[in-house]
């Protein structure tokens, strides 16, 4: 028989306490990092302690009907996170037993504290009024990753207040939201109105038109990017909402935007009818709704009509001046159809190559449509980075970028990140400075400049640009890599702020693992590294092997493979990160080779060679001192370029 539990109950097991209403887990009174879904699984198991809870029951608890996920893989990762949080071992469990082919069972003794007793306990220990923190002093964190070592009254009061007053996680989230803005706001910039466009619904147009579910909203994003009063999220950040009905208000809250555009389309006897609507997230009200129609053979006309309706309807309702720059207009129906089919394709290597072929054909028929060149630039870059395109695809990406910029100087197409990743820091800086001069109010422009400064090791300026980007567009997950800037500066709280922009991804877990290593939190780093490996980031295996004290021969074998993989990488920052992990794991020879390659290919972060604790193992090496000099020369050359000076470097033998 299923046991039920009142939401306010407190569960005690071993050294842990779990409070369901506040989603809090503590160990000996210290808050433990745990994400929402692992905590929900924990509560289900605690409620039904001693019973088998099937995987299907957990699926129903975690994902609503109609949600499409890799259930088995996702649940396995969630269980790994949960076991890491409560220090449990699946092979020798103290708390959670795996029942093969059936499910899971909580096997340890559990004490349940009634809600009223818990409230009395909490209120008796509540902080005094004069101990309450001023909002400006609060440190950012997330409900799934509250900084464990902050054992101050600030954190305790937030937890106690939420539980005693019954305000729950939503109130904590509001406090955190205000806190983040206070911490990162740049006085020179003001937040823009933020907007996301989600995949449209195919209302019966047939499978041959299904590509328009992605193509039409992606095109809307491109058109709205010309409105300087709006910050439009990249469409790639919303494609995850395509598999089931997406509630615009729920999507908006998750993405931290003010407005959401949704839509659908139907084929009515050869006429394509597209309907779009604008939802205000704060009150779930539909502010604008309009439809356009055109024969299926006249998608160019459809694009023009929809773009005009967006300007007349959306811009007027969200506030701000109308679009003054001319939105690029396609001229050839067949070329535009191929463009739409290309932008709807996934970024994985095989479909990406198909997209490139479509775009090449599209620009051969309509060579003056800038968005097609911009998309081709991005697709070639993906082919170079994640497939076998190599240097030829990098070159073609640069050429497509130059063509897009020449056709549309007012757009934001650029090759800044690509140039930085290829050691062309001076060229990347010039392009970023030009973009900022054209679009000083663009969060993307500030982020691109931060990218250049980061690769040049100018971390103070990189931090300023990151703060400007996030001030203009709070919550944009694209800015997640700014976490590296603050990690390298030793600012854990600010790094966590940027991790949380994309906190559920394997990428962010991998980065937070590197921060934990630098903070000497090896136990937490190991847990994160295991999760990152499960997410496909195999380069952290060296850290897992070292922290699990695997035999030296195994560690050496892993190091050799990771050295080989890193040397084949084109991105020098990725090489640096691998070198740092190799150094931490005692693989100094491999670390030196990869580090040398990183600097020689344009990673000029000289301060890291002085201060990064993961490189301390290399400090006594003569060759390391030479690398420090090379990195310093690389940075000085960049700084001289910034200042408009010539630079003469010293030869390093």
Structure commentary:
With 653 residues, the protein is of the alpha+beta class. It has three domains: 1-184, Orthogonal Bundle (Arc Repressor Mutant, subunit A), CATH 1.10.10; 193-407, 3-Layer(aba) Sandwich (Rossmann fold); 423-642, Tetratricopeptide repeat domain (Serine Threonine Protein Phosphatase 5, Tetratricopeptide repeat). Helices cover 53% and strands 11% of the residues. The protein has 27 helices and 14 strands. Strands 9, 10, 11, 12, 13 and 14 form a six-stranded mixed sheet that branches. The protein has a five-stranded antiparallel sheet with strand order 4-3-2-1-8. It has a three-stranded antiparallel sheet with strand order 5-7-6. Helix 1 packs across helix 3 (71-85) and helix 23 (552-567) packs parallel to helix 25. The longest helix is centred in the last third of the chain and has 21 residues, at 622-642. It is globular, with a radius of gyration of 26 Å.
Could you give the topology of this structure?
Layout: E1 10-13, E2 16-19, E3 24-27, E4 30-31, H1 36-47, E5 52-54, H2 55-62, H3 71-85, E6 96-99, E7 103-106, E8 111-113, H4 115-124, H5 153-165, H6 168-184, E9 193-197, E10 201-202, H7 212-224, E11 230-232, H8 248-255, E12 259-268, E13 271-280, E14 285-295, H9 299-318, H10 333-343, H11 349-365, H12 370-386, H13 390-407, H14 416-421, H15 425-438, H16 443-455, H17 459-472, H18 482-488, H19 492-499, H20 506-518, H21 522-534, H22 541-547, H23 552-567, H24 572-584, H25 588-600, H26 606-611, H27 622-642
Parallel strand pairs: 9-11, 9-12, 10-12
Antiparallel strand pairs: 1-2, 1-8, 2-3, 3-4, 5-7, 6-7, 12-13, 13-14
Helix pairs in contact: 1-3, 3-21, 5-6, 7-9, 7-10, 10-11, 11-12, 12-13, 15-16, 16-17, 17-18, 18-19, 19-20, 20-21, 21-22, 22-23, 23-24, 23-25, 24-25, 25-27
